[in-house]
Amino acid sequence: MGEDLEVVRASISLFSSAGIGDLGIEYGCGIPVAISAELLPKRADLIRTNYPKCDVIEGDIRTTKNQLINAWNETYTGRPILITLSPPCQGMSTNGAGKIAASVRKGKRPKNDERNKLLLPGLEIVKALQPEFFLIENVPNMKNTIVEWRKKPKRLLELIKPTVGKGYEIHSFVMDFADYGVPHHRKRLITIGRRRHRKLTKLIENKSPPEWFDFGALSERITVKQAIGNHVRTRQKDKYHRKPNMNEKHVVWASHIPKNSGDTAHLNRCISCRNLDEFKVVTCTKCDEPLPRPHVIEKDGTRRAIRGYKTSYRRMSPDQPANTITMNSGVASSDVKIHYSAPRVLTLWEIMILSSLKNTNNWKSGIVTHHPWSNQYSFGKHMESKDYALQKNLIRQALGESIPPLAMYRMVASILRDWP
Question: Which candidate, 126, 202, 221, 270, has a CA 20 to 30 Å from the CA of 63?
Fold first, then answer.
């Protein structure tokens, strides 16, 4: 497809994570998402429900690549204005890197994670359809990820240039979506490309975004308390904001973490004498009482500290944006997942606010947002009653992997408006 063809004001979403980030494109930028690729059936159904005019191609992109290309060419005679790509990051992410390494050593996981190469068929779609712009989002560690390419090790980032072909100007940089007012830290490697009327493709790796790009500001950051401070009290009749199901021991450990402290249950004081012992000590060295810290009881009746880091069983800091929202947002033992003042993890409603899927409307802090997509997305038809109580349900998983709609809107709007 030649670059002289008309640019169609419609986009293609690859690795869409249920289409959540695409809300920022369709409702924020006013660009219809015409085609969406989704591996998981339940998430594909969510896209069909929430984007009824979108052609959803379900399956592994390595096998659906030609189907995606044909779906565009059968409908349009021009080039898409935008293709977005957010491939799986688990094989690249430093979050869980220890578990990944252990699995490799045990032979339970291949040394070269094939998911790391899923970006390449997506880039082949870019080459075939020649969009005016493309945007790749992934964890910062993508820039250091090595894959096997033509039987040789190559940095994945370096493969973008030869895979998309000639004629693109490409910039790659790391930024934090919290600087857009997304109420959680989400550091990501952003790679943007624009079709140029020249033969060569140029890739520029920057420590920061180009000067013309809207990358937000520290002054735009919204803290956890500012975003959800008026939602501390849960409502049992509200399926999105009912008290999350947690292990009773986890509730006890969480309740002894000082409110608003950002501390971990691994450093809880002794209930009896208020002595503070070192990390991984679970019986008070001063009065010999059991400490309200994460532990297990061995077969011989002894107490042993649960293996983990000080970021597990930890409260969020109220005066900062939340830590990155992940698929484990309902698991107290995961990194920094406990509410800043309540003895629980966050509710689904709070996660949706922190992900910018829903508006912040906090009369206490005065923080009010008006996202045009806030009431445009529903999970209801795809969640059974019992699913809402699960620590890892469809909502938590989709939001944990998605680009926040506010971040997508700000990035795409800047690409369209500001790129000189």
Answer: 202
- The answer to whether residue 269 scores a pLDDT higher than 70 is yes
Rounded Cα gap, residues 143 and 120, in angstroms: 14
What type of residue is 84? T
Is-contact 287 269, C-beta < 8 A? no
How much of the chain is in helix, strand and coil states, percent to nearest 5?
30, 20, 50
Domains of the chain: 7-222+402-418 (3.40.50.150)
Q: 254: helix, coil or strand?
A: helix
User: Each residue of 84-96: pLDDT tens digit?
Assistant: 999 986 565 444 4
pLDDT one-digit tens code per residue, 172-209:
999 999 999 999 999 999 999 999 988 889 999 998 99
3-state secondary structure string across 148-194 = EECCEEEEHHHHHHHHHCCCEEEEEEEEEHHHHCCCECCEEEEEEEE
- How far apart are the C-alpha atoms of 321 and 103, rounded to whole Å? 32
The Cα–Cα gap between 235 and 111 comes to 46
Q: What is the pTM of this model?
A: 0.93
* Residue 348 pLDDT > 90: yes
DSSP 25-72: IIIIS---EEEEEESSHHHHHHHHHH-TTSEEEES-HHHHHHHHHHHH
Query: Which two structure tokens, joined as six digits, stand for 57?
Result: 């191609």
Residue 261 tokens, joined: 């402290």
The pLDDT of residue 128 is above 90: yes
Tell how far CA 141 is from the center of its chain: 14
Sign of the CA dihedral running 265, 270, 274, 279: negative
Q: How far apart are CA 62 and CA 128, in angstroms?
A: 15
Give percent above pLDDT 90 in the chain: 86
